[in-house]
Amino acid sequence: MKPDIEISPPRGTGPTMPRREFLRSLAVLAAAGAAGQSFLAADVARADDQASLFFPDGIKSGDPAPTGAVIWTRVAVEGAEPVAVLWSVAEDALMQNVVRGGFRMVDNSTGHNMHVRVRGLHPDRWYHYRFEVQGVGSVVGRLRTAPRALSSPDRLRYAFASCQQQTQSYYVAHRAIARENVDFLLHLGDYVYVNDSATLSVDDYRAVYRRFHSNPELQALQAQVPLVAVWDDGEFYNGVDSTGDPQRLANARQAWFEAMPVLRNRSDRTYRSLRWGNLAELLLLDTRQYRDPEVPPNTTFAGLLDAQDTTIPPGEQMFEPGRTTLGEWQLAWLGRRLAGTRARWKILGSSYDMAPWKLVDFDTPELRAADPDLQKNGGIYVSNEAWDDYQDERRKVMRFIEAKRIANVLVSAGHTHFYKASNIQPDCDDINSPVTAMEFVTGSLTADPLPTEIAPVELLQLAETIMLQANDPYLRHVDLLHQGYAVVDVTPEETIVEFRVIDTLDPAAEARTRGRFRVVNGIPGIETLA
């Protein structure tokens, strides 16, 4: 393949250049670097109504940095020959004041997916971008740059969400997020749901992403709002861990990197950091690729929920030392980032929930006082293949935060399909154990299945009451009934989290707030506002 070509406005012309001049300059380079791509020599006609011909999956931007971001698309072309794709970034939605651009050759080695790491932009600013192939342009999207590392921004506003199954539900939550005026969407995984037995090859996985990408509401959201993504198990197969078939895992990772606005590295590492000046640092975790197998459920609670009873094998494995969901290297990285960051707020993006989630508590203060040999943290837990299966590692993280006196640690999590707000302690059953982190868990973007298909509303509400009692006082909120997403407003003084719920079976539904919480700078613990 021919090398990529990139240009920026020439010296002396100011920060931008007219689109026509940009295209002429690019054409000169294209003639030298990619013979045969003569369509670049003329001003490319605007053809938004034909965008779906060459760009059926839409466009995305993501991973905002102070001087740029990643932009992505997939080109639909026939044959094996490489195709040249023009990309450009402008200050305006009409794409007239171009600030960066170039062309890239793409071929089927990446499924005709392409990524561009755009550089040389101004910090803390919105830009517009588009792609063009053979005179046909994509829709125009927006990208965001982050504030400078040492700057002091007064606000970060982001949404977080997970679990966008293709069911009878409408993608109305996606439409609502696009209206939230957020800096980015943190997608915590289950972006797609593959077939556990039939999605095996790279082409199988690619086909799943193309099917999910075909949703117009998803395309509209991701053209409007930058995406910061991690994976869960839906992108691999249900319950994935480090012991899976290596080739299948490699195929799934390849398809995910091809389909996301995330640059791939040699180790397929997805845990990474995103800085928002000295206001916040987002630490994105990979809870799947390196983890030990889950502890399987061994009981059923009230005939409703699969559960893990720690008094019945293999429930005791939840407490085994050394069990890991992060792996050795990621755990060490997390410790370095938490201890070394200068950001006021430290936000962990975890694909599944970190806080304990019991149905019955076998380690109450009364029982512990009566029996010194009582199993520590024993109980019947919701079988959720989450951090409860790795209690020794969770305790290590929380004790590290306590020992280093790291303040303002928040967790944004997904996976459960239910909303939760919880304080986290090194020992959830010790009233003297300090609160070291505050976690907020979002419901699902779509219904899979509808909660009322699992049980009547009255029974689900009773289950909420039981959960609040069994996890008192650290569980502050639980909602088993609704779908939606969460919105977070971070300022130097406080962080406000709102749970937005929406009727996913109503194509005209609007989001509403059902749960509003505050964490004050320097004061551990969640305050419930509504």
Notes on the structure:
This protein has 530 residues and is an alpha+beta fold. The chain has two domains: 5-144, Purple acid phosphatase-like, N-terminal (Immunoglobulin-like, Sandwich); 156-292 and 345-352 and 407-528, Alkaline phosphatase D (PhoD) (Purple Acid Phosphatase, chain A, domain 2). The chain has helices spanning 19-33, 51-54, 172-178, 202-213, 216-224, 246-259, 328-340, 365-370, 391-403, 451-454, 457-470; strands at 5-7, 17-18, 59-65, 68-74, 83-90, 97-106, 113-118, 126-133, 136-137, 141-144, 156-161, 184-187, 227-229, 272-276, 280-284, 299-301, 305-309, 345-352, 358-361, 379-382, 409-417, 419-424, 437-443, 475-479, 483-490, 494-502, 512-520, 527-528. It is globular and about 80 Å long. The model is unreliable at 10-14 and 28-47 (pLDDT under 50).
